[in-house]
Amino acid sequence: MKVYRITPKTPYTSLNPWPVPKLKIKETGITEFQIVPHARDELDYLRNQILAKYGSEEFDHIDLNFDLEIIKGFEASLNDVNVRADNRDAIYIRSDHFQLESDDDFIILYGVNHEQTGKAVFSNASFYGAELFNGVAVANTTVEFKDSAAELFPEGYENEKFYYVCKMARKKEWKFSYRTVRATRTERPTELIIIRKLL
């Protein structure tokens, strides 16, 4: 590696040429739990419906946990953390690492649709290989996730629009066909279930 130091011909008189900009307040005073007050129960219901629909004696399921992946920009700068060209407009979380062990395995990603609650203008699920951090595919909630949980709620349930469900697999017959995982922007961690065929 080569490092070049560039020295200006005329020294700068200011020791702080790029002051920290004044940040806009992101909070609105209204939380997502006020918009969807029964989210915990509705997400539990959704999980049970997913397992009832996709579970069978041939498959086992694993619930994965999520952690914060990238800290906020200024906090990262102070701690010398690489945020991979991120900005302060989004929250990134990551699931536990996993591997699909056969072409019959698949993933269910579900959670609150933050665009529908008005808490995000965009959100997505990005899928990466863990070893090389290589991007594989992305699913945009604006396009793919809208009304995707409706069939799992009772017909006409008023809060169904606030949730999404995405099924991901290697086989093309699934609605969404992606391979490995990271996660989405969220106030409450998105849920992820791996359904594995028993060998």
Give the tally of β-strands.
8
Computed structural class: alpha+beta
Strand content: 15-25%
- The strand line-up of the biggest sheet is 1-8-4-7
Sum up the overall morphology in one term: flat
**What would the average pLDDT be, to the nearest integer?**
75
H/E series: HHEEHEEEEHEE
Please give the count of helices: 4
Instruction: State the helicity in percent bands.
Output: 10-25%
The separation of the N and C termini measures 48 Å
* Overall tally of structural domains: 1
Main sheet, how many strands, which sense, barrel? Answer: 4 strands, antiparallel
**What's the gyration radius in Å?**
21 Å
Ranges where pLDDT stays below 50 over 5 or more residues in a row are: 174-190
Record keyword descriptors for this entry.
199 residues; four-stranded antiparallel β-sheet; two-stranded antiparallel ribbon
Describe the structure.
The protein is α+β, with helices and mostly antiparallel strands and 199 residues long. It has one domain. Helix content is 16%, strand content 25%. The protein contains 4 helices and 8 strands. The strands form 3 sheets. A 4-stranded antiparallel beta sheet has the order 1-8-4-7. Strands 2-3 form a two-stranded antiparallel sheet. It has a two-stranded antiparallel sheet with strand order 5-6. Strand 5 and strand 6 form a beta hairpin. The longest helix has 16 residues. The N and C termini lie far apart (48 Å). About 9% of the residues have low confidence.
